[in-house]
Every structure is written in C-alpha cells, then in structure tokens.
Amino acid sequence: MDIVLVGPGRAGHALRDRALARGYRARLVRDPRAGATADVVLLTVPDREIAAVAAAVPAGLWLGHVSGATPLAALGAGARRFVLHPAQSLERDGGSAQLDGASAFVTGSDGAALEFAANLARALDLRPVPLAEDERPLPHVACVLASNALVAMLAASCRLLGRDDALTILAPLATRALANAIAAGSEMRPTGPVARGDAVTIGRHLTALETADPEIAELYRVVCRAMLSLVDPDAAARVAPLL
Ligand SMILES: NC(=O)c1ccc[n+]([C@@H]2O[C@H](COP(=O)([O-])OP(=O)(O)OC[C@H]3O[C@@H](n4cnc5c(N)ncnc54)[C@H](OP(=O)(O)O)[C@@H]3O)[C@@H](O)[C@H]2O)c1
Question: Is-above-0.85 flag for pTM?
Fold first, then answer.
C-alpha cells in the first residue's frame, strides 16, 4: 500500500512513521496533487484547511481526514471518503510507538468506505471503532475530556502551587492517580475529600480558593460536582450543598 499524507505536522509525522514501521510506502507532503498515484490520501492538515485541500486532491482516490471534530462532508461529495481519527495525543517527534495501543474512530461515506477505513486502521495497528457520521460529536468530546481536560487540571494545579518545582511535586501524584484509575477499570473511583464526604475540608478549600484564585474555585466546584455520582451517596449528600 502506498499512502500519501498531506500536512507535515504532528499527526502527519506520527501516522507516516507508523505506516513506514508497518512496512508500507508512505510519503508526507504539502501538495495534495502528490497523491495522484497513491492508493490512499490522508489529510493531516489543520481542521480549517481540510475542505480546501480535499478539493485539490485528484478525483477518484480513496481520501480520508484524521480530525475528530470535522464532518466527513468536508472531503466533498462522492464515494471513497472516510474519517480515521486516532484517539491519541500526537507529537511530531514521537515516532511510531506513540500510537501503540491506540484506537481510531472510523467513519465512511458508505459501507465500502467504512470497511476501507477500518482495514487501514488495522494495517496501522490501530483498533478501529466504527461510528456513523451523526454519532461523531460525543466521542470527540470524550477524547477532549480524557486528554485536554487533564492537561488543564494539571496546569491549574501547578498554578495554585505557584512554585518552580510544582510539576516535580505534582507529576508523580497525577501519574499514579491516573494509573490507579485505569487499573481499576469500570470500578474507578476518586479518593479525597469528596469521597470521604469531608465537608469541613471542602469548606476550607473553597474559602482559601475564593481569595487566592476565584477561577480555580469555580473549576474545583465543577470537578467536585462531577465526583458526586462516583462516590458513596451518603458522602455525596454531605458535601453537595457546598458545591
Ligand atoms: N495532534 C494530535 O494529537 C492529533 C490527534 C488526532 C487528530 N489530529 C488531527 O490531525 C490534523 C492535523 O493536526 P496536527 O495537530 O497534526 O496539526 P499541525 O501539527 O499544525 O500540523 C498541520 C500540518 O499541516 C500543514 N498545513 C497547513 N495548511 C496546509 C495546507 N493548506 N496544505 C498543506 N499543508 C498544510 C502545516 O504546515 P505549516 O505548519 O507550515 O502551516 C503542518 O505541517 C487535524 O485534523 C487534527 O484534528 C491531531
């Protein structure tokens, strides 16, 4: 298989490296016309560029994009159109291994295109997760919460500590908490003051936060509310009025 990836950024490098590592021909280019002789063209340009770049790809080819947020229709009308959205945070220099264990949401313009996308995912050692076009928004939200939101939480935590060594202090805690939650699977539960129903501690936290950083106070409330359904109902009932 000869894959041409248009858009030499983070996703482009990662998927190009993966394809090469699995023994396929893969070229990372900027010019969509370079895909003329390829078996498949994969657009790894920014979301806002997908429609314009797709329009410049020679007609009749298998054509996909890798965006979780962009409609399939951005690739234009017609058959042989698909989405292959890797559920992974990708870096330009991360190489093929950054996709180890990753899934890819796949959507096709018809049954054949869905099958093509699923087979392409398997060829890249990505676990295909088929989605109809109208199902795609919520899985993308899930990806945002599972990745971008964790970064925002960690950044807010470092801001609150306000020390140069904040990440040195918090990274082992964050890493272990996430590993423990993943190991627990569907039984994952938060620990801490919400889980204990510790209204006194939460009250102290909120008092301190309102003075120090009202924006993080709001974040704290929202996140604690999200924990309520995960903890013992009696504990939740004790702290809910504060949140
Ligand atoms: N990064 C991730 O973790 C990740 C994960 C899953 C899916 N995706 C998806 O992957 C796609 C690319 O995202 P990214 O994070 O890889 O972005 P990125 O790092 O900014 O890379 C985009 C690349 O496309 C190039 N480009 C911009 N406009 C172009 C055009 N008109 N024609 C050809 N090349 C063009 C950019 O070149 P210049 O820098 O020179 O402009 C850059 O090399 C998006 O659809 C995104 O949703 C990303």
Answer: yes
